[in-house]
Amino acid sequence: MDMIATTMTREDVTAMIIQAKKQGGLTWEGIAESIGMSPVWTHSAAMGMNAMPSDKADALVSTLGLAPEASAILQESPTKIWEQTVPTDPCIYRFYEIVGVYGPTLKALIHEKFGDGIMSAIDFDMTVSRVENPKGDRVKVEMSGKYLAYNCW
Amino acid sequence: MDMIATTMTREDVTAMIIQAKKQGGLTWEGIAESIGMSPVWTHSAAMGMNAMPSDKADALVSTLGLAPEASAILQESPTKIWEQTVPTDPCIYRFYEIVGVYGPTLKALIHEKFGDGIMSAIDFDMTVSRVENPKGDRVKVEMSGKYLAYNCW
Amino acid sequence: MDMIATTMTREDVTAMIIQAKKQGGLTWEGIAESIGMSPVWTHSAAMGMNAMPSDKADALVSTLGLAPEASAILQESPTKIWEQTVPTDPCIYRFYEIVGVYGPTLKALIHEKFGDGIMSAIDFDMTVSRVENPKGDRVKVEMSGKYLAYNCW
Amino acid sequence: MDMIATTMTREDVTAMIIQAKKQGGLTWEGIAESIGMSPVWTHSAAMGMNAMPSDKADALVSTLGLAPEASAILQESPTKIWEQTVPTDPCIYRFYEIVGVYGPTLKALIHEKFGDGIMSAIDFDMTVSRVENPKGDRVKVEMSGKYLAYNCW
Amino acid sequence: MDMIATTMTREDVTAMIIQAKKQGGLTWEGIAESIGMSPVWTHSAAMGMNAMPSDKADALVSTLGLAPEASAILQESPTKIWEQTVPTDPCIYRFYEIVGVYGPTLKALIHEKFGDGIMSAIDFDMTVSRVENPKGDRVKVEMSGKYLAYNCW
Amino acid sequence: MDMIATTMTREDVTAMIIQAKKQGGLTWEGIAESIGMSPVWTHSAAMGMNAMPSDKADALVSTLGLAPEASAILQESPTKIWEQTVPTDPCIYRFYEIVGVYGPTLKALIHEKFGDGIMSAIDFDMTVSRVENPKGDRVKVEMSGKYLAYNCW
Amino acid sequence: MDMIATTMTREDVTAMIIQAKKQGGLTWEGIAESIGMSPVWTHSAAMGMNAMPSDKADALVSTLGLAPEASAILQESPTKIWEQTVPTDPCIYRFYEIVGVYGPTLKALIHEKFGDGIMSAIDFDMTVSRVENPKGDRVKVEMSGKYLAYNCW
Amino acid sequence: MDMIATTMTREDVTAMIIQAKKQGGLTWEGIAESIGMSPVWTHSAAMGMNAMPSDKADALVSTLGLAPEASAILQESPTKIWEQTVPTDPCIYRFYEIVGVYGPTLKALIHEKFGDGIMSAIDFDMTVSRVENPKGDRVKVEMSGKYLAYNCW
Amino acid sequence: MDMIATTMTREDVTAMIIQAKKQGGLTWEGIAESIGMSPVWTHSAAMGMNAMPSDKADALVSTLGLAPEASAILQESPTKIWEQTVPTDPCIYRFYEIVGVYGPTLKALIHEKFGDGIMSAIDFDMTVSRVENPKGDRVKVEMSGKYLAYNCW
Amino acid sequence: MDMIATTMTREDVTAMIIQAKKQGGLTWEGIAESIGMSPVWTHSAAMGMNAMPSDKADALVSTLGLAPEASAILQESPTKIWEQTVPTDPCIYRFYEIVGVYGPTLKALIHEKFGDGIMSAIDFDMTVSRVENPKGDRVKVEMSGKYLAYNCW
């Protein structure tokens, strides 16, 4: 089965990106800038949680000096899998907790402002930034998703 | 056990608030404004997911014409419980999905911008707003939480 | 807490609809026709899994002779909850099984025909019909949902 | 244990098919057409979720230039396993959500149109197609399964 | 909500059947015989796990002297729910264990005798009997279900 | 750790049996006959879900031409493990469904015919056969287990 | 549904036994002795985890002065249900822990002493006693269950 | 990482013990006797569920002719892990069932004989023996654990 | 079943204590002091997670003016149940997180300081205190449990 | 993929630390002292549950004679994962049990002493020590975390 064993996988590409980032002393912000995209989306696509358009995949391969066949893999539609129903990492868990505590509130206010519907997680973008504050700097997360109304038929 | 049966519970207070809101034709935005707080926090405290300072609890009781003993209950430190590990309501699920898909990205960018630590979900605030867009209006969610660095000792 | 105890709930409205349907010897198809909507959507809204526009809610109340306050409840944005992660009823389980067996196929073909994205379950409609067949009649289920492309930003 | 290590598995065959599809720049629709079957069934059998009749297995091996012993493996009755009780991939999750939200409706309407029974997921077929729409193209999924009545004995 | 509170439910009918059986000193075998059906099916329908044809429902109501409105309820298509994913009662658990230990064997032998398909659990019947044996009497369970072949399309 | 790496495991023996069966074009029924046992038990022991007496293990090794050390492994008392609490394969799931739907019925009828106790899943045997039927052939499964009465002490 | 509401349940009988035990200042050991059975079995049957033969049920009713209809209920074959897959009470958890830590050891030694089989949990008895010990008294639990050999057929 | 790859693990030591036992035609009882410990404890420590004192570890290494570095590993404090919350192997499951059925009884009798507390699973020992019986030999399991009273402070 | 309905339960006693505490404007620290015990233990026993010695139960009844029969209930050995395997309340979750992150460290250091064993959670006490700190006051939790060595036998 | 295969991982570094500790006959207390940190934090960082500042990572590498590239890995922000929702190891389980039994008490007393908020698990430190006691030495665990008040906005 040699033919199969030598095929490059998404996990390989992710590992190569992380290694290139370390060796080049790069940041996600820098990598994102070099391909003209946002850091959130760039990191997410590098981790295999989003597919890249071909020009962005080529740009990433070129920027980081990856093997050329990595570009095709970065363009594939990934199957998004997370293993932990409740994430254990404290940094990620806090966001899970926010969904648990404020989920009904998000639903109520979307309903109040828009009607019966949801915020899309597909036609969606997000930024993370640092806000200086004398009592301790704050993490700011801004999410924006298209409002989708329930259909009646 | 009559003495116990007649005690007002948090669930009673939540139900009374929802009924008063309906009967008065109010909005969460309006209720929040009348007590000088944000809509997210006001809805959350009304649902029993946050405790109110005494002046805010009194203001809510007065605004909505609730029974006076409701104020003390609104000031209690609630035990925050959500029954569904994975929320089934589509509107809330989408936020769960965002945590699953973008959780590792949030962690990586917080690390890049701040160091090894987390965004607090306690020293935390959030807003929900509507952004007009010719391709369809968008839901904007802004979260802000204090950065907490891991301790070394 | 008398004030609260006498409030009508969604469960009450669902029960009243089912009772009126039985007593009137009605069908879902007939009820749907009388309010000018599809049977799938009508049953779903009657069960509390979709919100009704006000004219349709009024029409249903009038058709079935429900208490007038039921209309407001039918218009509320419901919190959609299903208790069983894996449904045990054999009729519903078969659809769960189809998602398990053919889920990756649905994903692959949506990808092939549209690109990286999903079928919306919100901007969505569905019909159920009976197709005569000499080897045994068949159930036909047709789903239609708007294609949503993943955002790149 | 060399004898065992060199045995071809279903996972190997699936990997070989995907590799041949990539290298040949093929589509599932094209592969299906070349063996005279539907794209849904063809993809599903290629993924190891359905068994192929011998002529179709031979045709696939020939079309894609696979190793000859792959044909026998494609004809085996596969054990259908999905790891995730609740699928995390957003594209597949939406179908799970549809089963959760509309499962009781599907049951009620099958009952109304046929009597007490189910739609078979075995004597079953499905198509996926793209429907143009000025408000955004739509995914259309058509399922057809034999009605099976419960036995009384 | 008086109208609703007095509605008879399936749980009520099941409870009435059990009470009538106790008071009359009856057996499931005897009840089944009096309505001309098998004991397995009769018990299952009495527990709300199968729907009765109208003549059998009327016969049961008449035999046991139930309230007349029970007949309509016995004819409804029940939603089959079992709460325990793994049954704890030792008598039921042993059957779960048999499925765990011999499930792959049942699959392999059905495949060998019929081809790629399943035994239907809908077009299905079952008997339970006692077989005398000098080493200790034995429980005999006989299941019969229609073979369903997977569809290719 | 070479010494360990070359030890034959149960998984190896199962794989060798399946390979020998394929290469010899054998059936489970034929293999069972050649060692003088039933097909259900033979398949189950081959899969590592039952231990073989030494003469049967030797007979199987001889019939299939397995490596001689496989006999000792076939005689070991296996630890019976199934990974899926709810089996996903449709053929096996149908039996799980039967336990869910008819479990309480099996319990009630065993109680009625024997008293308070269970059917043993250890002192147990089972057959699978094909029954011709003009409406479609049927799978017949016959289980027989010793009745065990609960002890009182 | 008055007829149903006044039916005595197993939970009622258990509650009546506990109340009678408290009011009479009795012990389980004393109650067991008065009906001529062991304390383990007596407590278990009183909790609804075992069925009583009629003479023992009558004796318990007489000893504790229960309502006469309790005897029939104590003789019913109970459905044994425990809610917690992993028990949280520390006293019960320790036994669960023993099964986790020593389960494979129990299996290995039963195999060594008897052959391939199990210890019955049905033809089973158990005692609990106190053993004085200068370093702190010890709980002694003795279990005895019939050995059951796996069947070969 | 060669240095790491050649390190002996607990799993290696367990595998070596099992291999030595097979090759020597030994029993757990015999091995236990040769190191002057009980069979339950000896098997448990060999499986990595208990740590051995150094003299016993040396004795085991010497008795079975294991590699000398195995002794240090046998003396390590193991992390006790069992993968299955509910064990599937029938022999082990029966003990889980006993905890489910009789857990509340064990708690009640410990309370009656000692007061509010538990039986330790740490300061604990256990034996397994065979008791001849004309109706079928019985497995006898004797557990002894120190009583620990809850602290009040 | 009037006799049963009027029996006081642990839940009643807990509710009465909370009500008395509120009405009297008391603190857990004050209540604990008045019965001469620690706040942690007093709260825990009041919640039904520990049993009280008779003098402490009488003291609590007298201090809070509870109904006299509450004393006997406070002395019963409670069955300790927590519903949430993973606690959702953020204040309690943080302690769960500490066990997840530092559990292996606690084990390693107990092993290093004592040998192979555990810290008892039964012969155990705990205090909670407030420590002033210019960067923000700190919660201090001190746990003390008897070391228990694993038995070798 | 050779480039990837030779990359050092966190698991490798943890394994190297454990091996160096064994070979050097060191203790966690000794290692901690040599880098000027506490044993709890040092062990936790060595296990990959905390990130090290660069000077401490270099000190550890130097003290234990690790490969130089280990230092960079020890400084990375680790993703904290624990596999077992309920830990099975008895030593760790006891701490889980304490959270289950005393969690509501910890919450109530933090509320009483500070107000509505939590103890941080991030700005957190812990010590483990041995306290001599004539009745048996005790494990003392001291936790200290910054109090964080819920935000109102």
Automatic annotation (TrEMBL), chains A, B, C, D, E, F, G, H, I, J:
Domain Cyanate lyase C-terminal positions: 81-153
Protein family per UniProt: Belongs to the cyanase family.
Protein's UniProt keywords contain Lyase: yes
Reactions accelerated catalytically: cyanate + hydrogencarbonate + 3 H(+) = NH4(+) + 2 CO2
Name listed for the protein in its UniProt record: Cyanate hydratase
Transmembrane segments: none
Record function comment: Catalyzes the reaction of cyanate with bicarbonate to produce ammonia and carbon dioxide.
Xref: HAMAP family: Cyanate_hydrat
